[in-house]
Amino acid sequence: MSITGRYRWGVIAIFFAFMLLHQIDKQLINPLLPQVMEEFQISKTQMGAVMTGSLLVGTLLYPLWGFLYDRWSRARLLALASFIWGSTTWLSALARRYVPFFVARASTGIDDSSYPGLYSLVADYFGPQMRSRIYGLLQLAQPLGYLSGMILALMVAPMLGGWRSVFYLTGSLGLLVALVIFLFVREVPRGQAEPELEQLEIGQYRFSLNALRDVLRKRTMWLLFLQGFFGVFPWNVISVWFFTYLSQERGYDENAVLFTMAPLILMLSASYFVGGALGDFMFQRTPRGRVLVSSLGVIGGAFFLLLSLNTPLEQRGLFFVLMMLTAFFMPFSAPNVVSTVFDITLPEVRSTAQAVEYFIENTGAAFAPLLAGIIADRYDLGTAILWIGVGAWLICFLIYLGALFTIPEDIRSLRQQMALRSAQEKARQMS
Fold first, then answer.
1. Rg of the chain over CA atoms, in angstroms?
2. Residue 322 is part of a domain; what is its CATH number?
3. Which residue from 383, 394, 377, 381 is spatially nearest to 300, judged by alpha carbons?
4. pTM above 0.85, yes or no
5. Which residue range is the domain that position 306 belongs to?
6. What is the pLDDT confidence band of residue 1, given thresholds at 50, 70 and 90?
7. What is the pLDDT of residues 101-141, one digit of tens each?
8. CA-closest candidate to residue 79, choices 215, 218, 6, 175
9. Cβ pair 275, 297 in contact under 8 A
10. Cα(82)–Cα(173) distance, rounded to whole angstroms?
11. Residue ranges with strand state E in 146-265
12. Same-domain pairing of 241 and 282
């Protein structure tokens, strides 16, 4: 089945809405923490347990979701994930005691590991020459969701009567998106958009252990796993501690924090697409193209973060400009890493491979805020953000240098496998 024209862009619009609203729902609770803690009369430790619970559930379920997506219909499973998101958010709002709230909120992590199937399905709608810009377009929903969640929590929630009302709203939107995905998003054969197969009527390829073993033998994949572990350290440290750093160590009031963070988040959003488009541009010229752009992103982020955090406190204008440049380079890796995983992975195990990569990323994410807190207690937050951000990105840069040597052969191997599969499909159809 060939998918062309406006339909596939309609699917992208649906997926963008899914990711945007899902990110709003995920990030919404952060600004609402004081209200929730007051409602249930709980400590910071108890509230931290709620947040950790959802993270652990999501992390542990990545491999399972990856297998399910490679085995059954990704479109139907995405509809199920959206239904789970809406239902668990409603249950969180309905809870009247801490323990039911803890269970309900932790269960919201079930659907947090649903993105590998979404990216895999998109890879069968769009060929390898333009995947990074599509992923960049979809991923800009993440920072926009972060910003929208903050606005919804701080400005809309009081008008709706509190945190429960806004949870009912986002939960209902999750249920609505589930219905839209179920009715309008069609499954397509795995590998449909590969250049060797796009003109053929192919069968359904499903998960196999042999295909997964083949992926795990590729050196580039292990390098991507390794950079995934370190690559999330700066993101999680900045997202958790940067507000506090601005207010406590740079002396920003609430308005200054808002007028600093909002443009930074908008810059991040735009740069996902810029990084993805640049990755596609370079990939059309060399198989190393996406890795080169990812390398540029981490070294640029490290350089401008180093300059930003060493800017004198009184030079707020210069600090803002340097942080905007940091935000410009930070997202370059994100869409290109997803595309690179798919550039070397057979279609029937792409969700699983991506899920394993996210599992390793989230393992790193769990340690980052704690490590930053330890360094901050000994020195200060600026030092913690600087050491972790610059250090992790330099490690990633070295890993990407290694991937520059391994990626051409791994891409060539996949293209040979696709050519063989194309020949088999043509022989089957002629017989």
1. 22
2. 1.20.1250.20
3. 394
4. no
5. 203-431
6. very low
7. 888 888 888 888 888 889 889 988 888 888 899 998 888 88
8. 175
9. yes
10. 9
11. none
12. yes
